[in-house]
Amino acid sequence: MTRYLIAGAAGMLGQDLQRALAGRDVTALGRADLDVTDRDAVLAAVAGHDVVINASAYTRVDDAETHEDEAYAINATGVENLAVAAHEHGAKLVTVSTDYVFDGFGTSPYSEGAPRDPINAYGRTKAAGEELALAAHPDGTYVVRTAWLYGAGGANFAKTMVKLAGSHETVSVVADQLGQPTWTGDLAAQIVALLDADAPAGIYHGTNAGQASWYEFAKAVFSRAGLNPDRVTPTDSSQFVRPAPRPAYSVLGHEAWRAAGLEPMREWQDALADAARHGVLEQHDNPESGR
């Protein structure tokens, strides 16, 4: 029987990974259970497992601008530790990465092989994590890049929109950043499908299909939550200046799935409808969340 280890299991994606692997032999470790920056602890934790799924990450994008060393320890060194341990123990490693490894200046979907060129500290640390993991365990590392995650088990944009609707007549959302809203339920299922298919190691883009601006996503969230979408108004990113620059274009291509004989993830609108039916837009936040 395949034995799975989930690092970062208490986060939003980690919770859905546990659901997707229900009935299997799973060790689920949250931040309090496993410090991925401690190589000895990681080596001990990975022993006896066949698959390691890394859903742990430093995801405070703006804070990373002034705490890049801390972010690097988790997003780069921690990922390398997991890769070294997986290699030593003969396990596969799936590590979850991000669209932020790209510059965001593109106009067509980024391919899995497009050069990394991050524009902020968070992106630099995640890009380093990819490179270190692939170097340490090239034949057994799966990098799954995702973006714009929302789910039941943590704070996220979709649930924030619903919450704001309770206290604001209108909500202003940027319309000049494009990406792919992605339900953690779908991403977890896709990661399990990737492993079950014994697909080739390498880079995959784990985002729901299609594209939307944050404004379009917010309007869709309002609709699915039974709210009037006309309460969402468009603005541009110049009105929301933050410490870390954001990619303007974060649409990812999905050719690696097809090359491996797997179907890419479904359209984001279909995923959101399904997520809403599963109560994802309801307010029951877990403070330990992230990707």
TrEMBL record:
Its EC number is 1.1.1.133. Residues 4-276 form the RmlD-like substrate binding domain. The keyword Oxidoreductase applies. The keyword NADP applies. Pathway: Carbohydrate biosynthesis; dTDP-L-rhamnose biosynthesis. GO terms for biological process: dTDP-rhamnose biosynthetic process. Transmembrane segments: none annotated. InterPro entries: dTDP_dehydrorham_reduct, NAD(P)-bd_dom_sf, RmlD-like-bd. PANTHER family: DTDP-4-DEHYDRORHAMNOSE REDUCTASE, METHIONINE ADENOSYLTRANSFERASE 2 SUBUNIT BETA. This is dTDP-4-dehydrorhamnose reductase. It comes from Leifsonia poae. The lineage of its organism: Bacteria, Bacillati, Actinomycetota, Actinomycetes, Micrococcales. The gene is rmlD.
